[in-house]
Amino acid sequence: MTEDTGTPLNVLSHVNGVVNEGFETQGDSISVSNRSSFKEEHSRKGLGLYLSKVSKPINATEDYFKAHAKTIKYIVLGLLGAGYVAYFITACILDIERSIALVVLTSLAVVSKAYDLVKTYHGDSITKCFIPAQRSISYGHFKCKRPEQLISFGGVCMFILVIFIFSAHRTEVAWRSVFWGLGLQFCIGLFVIRTEPGLTAFQWLGEQVQIFLNYTKHGSSFVFGPLVESDIFAFQALPIVIFFSSVMSVLYFLGIMQWLIIKIAWVMQITMGTSPTETLSVAGNIFVGQTEAPLLIRPYLKDMTKSEVHAVMVGGFATIAGSVMGAFISFGIDASSMISASVMAAPCALAISKLSYPETEESKFTSEENIKVACGDEQNILEAASSGASTSIGLVANIAANLIAFLAILAFINASLGWLGGLVGFPSITFEVRSEIISTFALCGFANFSSLGIVIGGLSSICPSRRADVSSLVLRALFTGTCVSLINACIAGILFVPPLDCLDVFGTSFFNTTNIDLINCCTDLFGSTVNNGTISFEGSWSTVTNATLYFTNCCDLFDNAVCN
């Protein structure tokens, strides 16, 4: 018979004096396993207890920061602000001339913050002040100093009349939008062209833009080498377009352009009463091109009215992209005129578009809270910079081709004017300074037939469902955009007064006539005259040889106290 099965298994492992080393008893296995699990559990509890003790101060610190986040934020901002104020004061004390840019940037930051606060707390109240379309527009006094300014004023009236005659819905015109748009345009032009602070500010801004664009040479010199130092246009100006396009793409990626555009759009919206979508797109055209600006309102294009779509296209035709502006400035065109022309064109484009194609439908976008502006699709700044540079390649080719054509045409026109003038004794007839300024404003736009395809293709690709509307409105928008550019030029012609060369006036005028230039020069001479028994002159007249003769002739024509 077999042995009792209750015999322990560890005994069976030593049967007949032979040790079975590979045989483990069940009891030993359970015992070892229990001891091991106990040690692991004890170790985990000890580690958890240790981590709990260590993390307590960390958690307490985190809870403290969360509870006092606002206070800590204000303290940090206060310290940073105090540090910046100290830096700002030190820089101004050491060299105020060198710190002008810092002063301007700081002032812009303060104004922007004040703008946000006013809009946040008083935006609704301000908006209500502009709602009544029937209120009379403030009367602005304007003194015409030259007869040719009346020609420009007549041009404004003529273009408005023509657009009204060809308006799609003449009885539906919202005159509030028209008058406020033209008023904003005139006020901007008045500030820039006819006031000393405005002229100085935009001239300074133009100089800073030129300094900024000069950084292009660091990139183009690496690619083209010594050719950059030559006067070859392709190596001097066209790289600026690439650089500026890349910078604009980066600013768009960072959201800076969207922020600035929204601020400008808000001002136009509350004054003109236009919808947020069309206003946002037109404001965007100040800085970006006719295909980039609609991207700001891409999600809303499918639901916009035909009048709003028309306004979007007019804004594209009436303005130029920032990259093209940079190229124009590099050509030698006055930077302040280019910048002011772009800013002035925006409200005018919105106003004239509402005259050409008035709103007859009910807009779905009546509040700016419903409008969200997205940033670019790029993943980082480097991709944004690269994308902006790549998209400018076609633009560079178009600029080069158009310059070849238009500069040749301009040379022919100048030669023809000189020939025609020579036949009647004026061989030096050409485009004068005033005409150059007017031409700058008139040509500051994309209103040309080559842009038709760009607009149709761009808007159709963004919103295919509106292809039919875009195609039916694009010719009207082109005509309206052209008129906007010409009205912009007329406003410049009204406001711009070229510097008067009195020595040339006195040398060519007969002193038995009373033309406006002679009156102004004699008035200036009287103001610089000191009569203390003997006649003497101050200022620039003190160095003029024939000042006494000019003074005598002026006194023969005009009665002034200094002549007695």
UniProtKB/TrEMBL annotation:
UniProt domain Nucleoside transporter/FeoB GTPase Gate: residue ranges: 235-332
TM spans (from-to): 74-94, 150-168, 174-193, 240-262, 313-333, 395-417, 437-461, 473-497
Domain of life: Eukaryota
Occurrences of domain Concentrative nucleoside transporter C-terminal (ranges): 338-432
Keyword terms, alphabetized: Cell membrane, Membrane, Transmembrane, Transmembrane helix
Positions of the Concentrative nucleoside transporter N-terminal domain: 155-227
Annotated membrane topology: Multi-pass membrane protein
A GO CC annotation given for this chain: plasma membrane
Entry-linked Pfam families: Gate (PF07670), Nucleos_tra2_C (PF07662), Nucleos_tra2_N (PF01773)
PANTHER family tied to this protein: SODIUM/NUCLEOSIDE COTRANSPORTER, SODIUM_NUCLEOSIDE COTRANSPORTER
Family: Belongs to the concentrative nucleoside transporter (CNT) (TC 2.A.41) family.
Annotated protein name in UniProt: Solute carrier family 28 member 1
Natural source organism: Oncorhynchus kisutch (Coho salmon)
Gene that produces this protein: slc28a2
